[in-house]
Amino acid sequence: MDQHSGIMTSASASDYIRRLQHYSRHDKNGNIYRPLANFLDTKTKKMRIDESVDEPSERCVWYMMVQSNIATDMVPILSLSDLKSIESSSNFSACSGRLIFLRGFPSAKWLAILGHLYQVTPDVWRRHLDFLSQIGEGFFQVTSLPSWRSHVFHLRICSLGGWRNHWQFIKHSIEHLHRMAARDMESYRASLGRADDWKQGDSVVRRYMIHDKTYFSIEQHVTVYMYHDRDTEPWTIIVLSDCGDDLDTKHHGPWVRFQDSKLFPTPRSDGDELLNTASWKQDFGNPNDHGLIEAKLSQSLSEIHVGYGKKLDPEGMAHNPFYAIYEIFLQCASAECQILDMVTTMIEEHEIGQSSPKKDAADYEASHTQLLHFQGFLEHRVESLRDILDIIRTHGKKPWAYPNERVAETVGKATDKLIEDFEYLLRRVHNLLRRIERTISISMSLINMEQAKRSIDQNMTLFRFTVVASIYIPLSFTTSFFGMNFLEFGQGPLSIWVFFVASVPIFILSIFGLFIKRAWIEQLPARLGNKVTSWALRD
Fold this sequence. Notes:
Elements: H1 13-26, H2 34-44, E1 61-66, E2 75-76, H3 80-87, E3 97-103, H4 108-117, H5 122-128, E4 152-162, H6 174-194, E5 207-210, E6 215-227, E7 235-241, E8 262-263, H7 277-283, H8 314-319, H9 326-350, H10 361-396, H11 405-482, H12 497-515, H13 518-538
Parallel strand pairs: 3-7
Antiparallel strand pairs: 1-2, 1-3, 4-6, 4-8, 5-6, 6-7
Helix pairs in contact: 1-2, 1-4, 2-4, 9-11, 10-11
């Protein structure tokens, strides 16, 4: 649907939902919007969807009014009246743009209200909530084309976690842990697709992978809607992040199956702010004042709204909305670097060199399995990094109008820094993939050598057994032969020629069965069956 299609001209949030329902049910192209329409309708039918009704957001909706002359704070929107009071204030007249964060599982009511107020195409909500259409809808998701990224784009951000107690994995192989993670994640996605017990602010996980008996990772999405009409002010950016409440507070996923699960913190920048204690107290204050409670499965990305934009140039944010989300890309780059550090360490453990300890075939096969796992993981990261680079080059290099050269230089350097960082990360992933391919090739050769060595040892054992048998089998035959009850041996009435008459035909049949073609034997029942059928027809 187009940004200004008929479905977008709703007079209220409730009309926004009704028009979406009508479009999904009566338009031939509307089937893909049916899960979203049902979600909005089901979650809001017990409440009035009206601009005069308040709904507490529990610090899940944050708002920043961007002005060119001053740096403003990100403030929580606890109700719809808070949003209306901000945009009806005298300061809003000088506003150049608005930046809105929606943390965790989104509220259906807030989606309808924001969609109505800012004329957001439902395609934005549909693509972010793509997990709703996984339950028996019978169609594929529409791939995000480059032209569609002019207003909306996705970021796939990984968080690294781990366990301290390795003893709990003693009974499990790494292949079993991989299968267990995939199976548990299927159940989690099914629960997420139904969205029955999910509340606003619950964290959502798209992928979960166990890498070894120490580390695991989760992948979450950040969807950014950015609309800027050069003739209309202010611009609007809505950020929908999967990161909300701590992952160990609600909807326990497979990442808490084992004891002492913990997510590692991701640095948001180069750490220069640690040297400025006064700035830290002013910008961040007490973490509990922002609802940030220390927990084992808390995420750095869920805290990105705290002190957001303090290091960005206010004039640059006002004149370039893409620059206003610069810190989100920095967080994504830091998380990606942390993940690649872990993968690098894991690959070094499985690489084969002169200093590597001697391993047997089972160890090489285990390493081969792990390397294939990391190869698939990194190929997925390549796709994500390429998409991000395309987004930065498309939006960061646009000819935005700046008030002076200083602002243009500041924003240009920030864009160049992002491109440099993500190009470095992409090169690093490609280097890791080459190392994996080389190590896999060597490990396969060593596995084949170990198997060949094992075959040689088995053949040598069989040879020794054959030598021993060649000595004792004739002796056994001799003793058996002279122990028979024949007339010539004075033991019985039969002649010894009876033995040869009976043995020679059996020997000939054995030789014939040894050299007969296996295919002919397999076809023999069919041939006999055909002959029996032909005889029956004759009769």
